[in-house]
Specification:
With 338 residues, this protein is an alpha/beta fold. Helix content is 18%, strand content 23%. Bound molecules: guanosine-5'-triphosphate and magnesium ion (MG). Magnesium ion binds next to α2.
C-alpha cells in the first residue's frame, strides 16, 4: 500500500435550510396565525481519527468534501431535518492545518477523537418567529446561512516513542524486526525501507513502547539527496532517538564519521530534533573484523556522553538490555512532560 502522509483537501459544510412561510388553516379558525417552521442546520464536516488507518492515501483519491444541506422548514411549525454530517477518517497523529493561514487547527492524537473542521450553516427561522402585536401576518422567513468552507492541509506525523536513525543498511529494519512484531523488508542494499514502519516493543514483562523505523539518511539529505528529509517528520514526536551505526566489515567507513554525518543532517533538519535524548547502538556485532572500529565508536560516545549499546539484531545479543533502556528513557521523558 502506498504511504501518503500529506494531503490538501477542500471541505464545505452544508447550507442551512430556509425557514418556511406558512399560515395555520383549520376548520372553524379564520385567519390562523403564522406557522412556518425553521430550517434544519447544514451538516458539519468532521475529521475523526481511527487506528484502523495508517496513511492519508484515501484522501488523495477524494479531495473535496461537501456535507448535506439542512432541510427547509415546513408548515405546521415543523422543523426541517438537519443535514447529515460528513465524517472524514484519518490515522491518529494527523495534524489539521489551515492552508491559507498555515495555523494548526487541531492535532488528532487519539483513536476516536473528532474535530469539527467546518460548521454547518444555521437553519433560517420560520415566519412563526416574526409575529408581533403590530405585525400579525409576517410574510417572510429567514434564509438558511452558508456552511463554512475551508482549504485544509492534513499532515500525518506518526506517534512513536523511539525513532531509529542511521545510514541506509545500518540495520534499522533488522533491529525493529528483532525487537518487535513488525516485519519490514530487509535487504543488503541501501534504501530498502521506503516508508516508515512502526513496531510495538514489549519490555519489563508488561510494559511497551512504539518504535519507528524510517528510511535511511545520507549526507546531503538536507539538500534532498537520497530520500531526503521527507520522513524525518515522523520522528519529531518521539521521546528518544536511537542512532544505529554499522561497525561490521560490511562497511569500510569510519563509524565516528558516519555518526557525525548523520548527526549533522539531523541538526540541519531541526534544532529541536537534535535536543532529544539520543543513544547510539553499534550494530552487526556478529560479523568479525569489527573490534577496532567498535572501540573507536564506544570511546567517542563516552567522550560525548551518548549512552552506547553494542548489539546484534540477528543473534539478539544486547537486544533485551537495549529495550529496557529505551523503555525507561521513554517513561522518564513522558513523566517529565506531565
Ligand atoms: N550479520 C548481520 N547482518 C545484519 C545485522 N543487522 C542487519 N544486517 C544485514 O544488513 C543489511 C541491511 O539491514 P537493514 O535492516 O535492511 O538495514 P536498514 O538500516 O533498514 O537499511 P535501509 O532500510 O536501506 O535504510 C541486511 O542484509 C541485513 O541482513 C546483524 O546484526 N548481523
Ligand atoms: Mg530498512
Amino acid at each position: 500500500m502506498k504511504f501518503i502522509d500529506q494531503v490538501k483537501i477542500y471541505v464545505s459544510a452544508g447550507h442551512g435550510g430556509s425557514g418556511c412561510v406558512a399560515f395555520r388553516r383549520e376548520k372553524y379558525v379564520a385567519k390562523g396565525g403564522p406557522s412556518g417552521g425553521d430550517g434544519g442546520r447544514g451538516g458539519h464536516i468532521i475529521i475523526k481519527a481511527t487506528k484502523n488507518m495508517s496513511t492519508l492515501l484515501d484522501l488523495r483519491h477524494q479531495q473535496q468534501y461537501r456535507a448535506e444541506k439542512g432541510q427547509y422548514g415546513m408548515g405546521k411549525d415543523m422543523h426541517g431535518r438537519n443535514g447529515k454530517n460528513m465524517v472524514i477518517t484519518v490515522p491518529p497523529g494527523t495534524l489539521i492545518k489551515d492552508v491559507d493561514t498555515d495555523e494548526v487547527l487541531f492535532d488528532l492524537t487519539d483513536d476516536g477523537q473528532e474535530f469539527i473542521a467546518a460548521n454547518g450553516g444555521r437553519g433560517g427561522l420560520g415566519n412563526a418567529h416574526f409575529k408581533t402585536a403590530t405585525r400579525q401576518v409576517p410574510r417572510f422567513a429567514q434564509p438558511g446561512e452558508d456552511g463554512e468552507e475551508r482549504n485544509l492541509f492534513l499532515e500525518l506525523k506518526l506517534l512513536a516513542d523511539v525513532g531509529l536513525v542511521g545510514l541506509p543498511n545500518a540495520g534499522k529494519s533488522t533491529l525493529i524486526s528483532s525487537i518487535s512484531a513488525a516485519r519490514p523488508k530487509i535487504a543488503d542494499y541501501p534504501f530498502t525501507t521506503l516508508i516508515p514502519n512502526l513496531g510495538v516493543v514489549q519490555y519489563g514483562g508488561y510494559k511497551s513502547f512504539v518504535i519507528a523505523d524510517i528510511p535511511g539518511l545520507i549526507e546531503g539529505a538536507h539538500k534532498g539527496t537520497g530520500l531526503g528529509f521527507q520522513f524525518l517528520r515522523h520522528i519529531e514526536r518521539t521521546s528518544v532517538l536511537l542512532h544505529l551505526v554499522d561497525i561490521s566489515e560490511m562497511t569500510e567507513d569510519d563509524p565516528v564519521d558516519n555518526f557525525e554525518k548523520i548527526h549533522k543532517e539531523l541538526e540541519l533538519f531541526s534544532a529541536e530534533l537534535i535536543k532529544k535524548p539520543q543513544a547510539v547502538a553499534a550494530t552487526k556485532l556478529d560479523i568479525k573484523g569489527s573490534g577496532e572500529r567498535l572501540d573507536r565508536l564506544a570511546e567517542y560516545c563516552k567522550d560525548n556522553h551518548y549512552d552506547f549499546f553494542p548489539i546484534c539484531a540477528v543473534t539478539k545479543d544486547g537486544i533485551k538490555e537495549l529495550a529496557n533502556y529505551l523503555g525507561a528513557k521513554v517513561q522518564e521523558h513522558k513523566s517529565n512532560i506531565e
